[in-house]
């Protein structure tokens, strides 16, 4: 078994843990933000309905800012107030509501999981973090812990980006915070700290602290309710601690939780020495030619042709202008030709490369792809009959385009 971590990285004093819980919860009761999912969950006496309200919010909040989520959340809960209602929705409706929120597979999996609860689990939500994670698609360790603690009162901790930052600062953890060894330690710590009688509030309080006080760049340590338990702050104020066993610096280089020997504590950074992450891989560059085919509809309004993407992979099931991935380094002239070939095969029309009007380029950053859309337009003056064996397609007005399940990238293209 690996050796236990040095004492400075642990919460081992029961009195300190009790004090930290009390201070954090008192602060949360006074300062928590008024958010729609909190309001809904607090007013909901039925635990399963509460779990659904929490679940939707947690999935939407993954990788997305609170301010962006609020409107989507309100519309979603109005349209599908219960798990049973969501289970009856079509994927098209889910994609339409999700459009613009990004990471589209989240909505799809949420709906798949709702259907599974209704059809395979007799409408009963699993009630522990272990079962939630095991039985529901798209529910990982964090979401399972959030639902179980906030809806069913299970005393289980949770670790997300905010919690990582707070815990790493509280206990001076400077090793790569995305490494499995550190993540495992943080889960142990979260489980040890979580308040036994108010686990859901405690978890939300820890995340709220990370979101509003212990923020990445300029944390408000002076206002922090747990500052007296914070070893990063102590180190900032008093310098390198005296070499006594319970607070000793572990010895740069030999401790698996301290900053790496090559990047020791930097006093100009203060508490923001923690957490640290290994450098991210840069996103992959990709280019796609996309063509806005337009015509005058029967009432004279401009209409655009959109096609549906395959049901798996990036932006699964969403609608887009006819598009074609481009090989790296392809010359402009060649790009036009391959796009014209593609459109010709697809529409059966004699599309000439020279007829495609180059409009410009649109850059969109997905989490792992730096995508450039090379945008062309092609006005058509007759109807196009598309081969029904190809992807589904339809003509839409600008208003209909915005109401369709299209990605933010395609809105930029338009
Ligand atoms: Fe974060 Fe500062 Fe509070 Fe420590 S004292 S937990 S660094 S806000």
UniProtKB/TrEMBL annotation:
Domain of life: Eukaryota
SUPFAM superfamilies named among the record's database cross-references: DNA-glycosylase, Nudix
Gene Ontology biological process terms from the UniProt entry: base-excision repair; mismatch repair
Cofactor: [4Fe-4S] cluster
Record carries keyword Repeat: no
Primary localisation category: mitochondrion
Locations listed in the record: Mitochondrion; Nucleus
Name the record gives this protein: Adenine DNA glycosylase
